[in-house]
């Protein structure tokens, strides 16, 4: 009896192209600057918009044989009857002698913006373009997978290996950290951290030579990172940053990758306390420039707040000092006076 095997699709762990030594130095003299922008930091902000293997629900698959395209953005979704736990509705089958090449974009909702899907002659990667729009309120973690080509010699009558989809992140992810270095006994709160001019639109090109971004435009997107909060909190409430302590923004945000020609404006409000006494509230505007936001990288921008920059970098806080001006002499008035002592007063 002949056996017919379905083309199975499986989504495996999503791996970002990351390196722990991606560092950007941007601190300038006394001014508040952000440094140590690095990839794949060990901690995460409270709200992370990233997809993982556990929370990804669907993707769009594109597939070719040497004879033409057979998958045209078909929806693959978690659940259903497939043994892999990932199903699609119009089943297709492995046909011996055919070479299969697949590509995928996640989530499936992005498929409506995919165009120019091709497989060039003798190519091993499905190419395409994705027109992407970023927002603040409803962020979408754009993913791409390019599994290894399955050659015609591999596809035998008994072939039934699922197509393993390992997704990689196609955007940049950003968060902010703040260190309190004002001095012993001083506490700081940071509120309303924002990038006010991120790019709204861009085009991802999936190509054999590598994925890249172009056509970034409309840099008027305001990304709200929230307040700087306590570790493991569940609410966006500004926490006290004690001296020599670092805390992170409540939100991480996704950004369209861009070369280092762009300039981004960061705004936030700093509150300075002596113990529990609020001494001042200071609104800051900081520029991030000469930084390349790379596809698949996570950036942690760190600022160190000191007595020199927390109020105004041009007018740093001055220490309260004391000096002894003089010691007044004893009172020289009413001298040589006779004091009458009551006769009833007696000593022991």
Automatic annotation (TrEMBL):
InterPro entries: Mfa-like_1 (IPR025049), Mfa-like_1_N (IPR042278). This is Fimbrillin family protein. The lineage of its organism: Bacteria, Pseudomonadati, Bacteroidota, Bacteroidia, Bacteroidales. It comes from Bacteroides faecalis.
């Amino acid at each position: 009896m002949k056996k017919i095997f379905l083309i199975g699709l499986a989504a495996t762990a999503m791996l970002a192209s990351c390196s722990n030594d991606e560092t950007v130095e941007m601190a300038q003299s006394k001014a508040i600057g952000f440094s140590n922008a690095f990839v794949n930091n060990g901690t995460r902000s409270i709200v992370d918009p990233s997809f993982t293997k556990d929370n990804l629900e669907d993707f769009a698959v594109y597939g070719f044989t040497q004879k033409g395209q057979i998958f045209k953005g078909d929806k693959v979704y978690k659940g259903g009857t497939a043994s892999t736990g990932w199903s699609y509705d119009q089943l297709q089958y492995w046909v011996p002698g055919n070479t299969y090449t697949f590509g995928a974009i996640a989530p499936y909702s992005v498929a409506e913006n995919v165009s120019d899907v091709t497989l060039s002659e003798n190519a091993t990667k499905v190419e395409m373009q994705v027109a992407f729009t970023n927002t603040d309120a409803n962020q979408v973690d754009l993913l791409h997978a390019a599994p290894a080509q399955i050659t015609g010699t591999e596809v035998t009558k008994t072939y039934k290996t699922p197509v393993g989809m390992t997704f990689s992140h196609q955007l940049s992810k950003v968060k902010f950290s703040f260190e309190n270095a004002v001095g012993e006994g001083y506490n700081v709160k940071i509120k309303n951290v924002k990038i006010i001019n991120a790019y709204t639109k861009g085009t991802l090109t999936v190509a054999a030579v590598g994925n890249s971004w172009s056509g970034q435009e409309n840099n008027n997107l305001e990304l709200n990172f929230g307040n700087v909060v306590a570790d493991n909190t569940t609410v966006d409430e500004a926490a006290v940053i004690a001296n020599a302590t670092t805390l992170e923004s409540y939100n991480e945000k996704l950004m369209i990758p861009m070369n280092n020609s762009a300039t981004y404006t960061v705004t936030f409000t700093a509150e300075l306390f002596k113990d529990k006494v609020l001494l001042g509230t200071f609104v800051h505007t900081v520029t991030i420039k000469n930084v390349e936001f790379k596809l698949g990288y996570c950036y942690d921008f760190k600022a160190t707040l000191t007595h020199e920059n927390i109020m105004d970098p041009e007018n740093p806080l001055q220490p309260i000092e004391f000096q002894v001006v003089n010691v007044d002499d004893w009172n020289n008035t009413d001298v040589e006076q006779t004091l009458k002592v009551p006769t009833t007063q007696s000593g022991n």
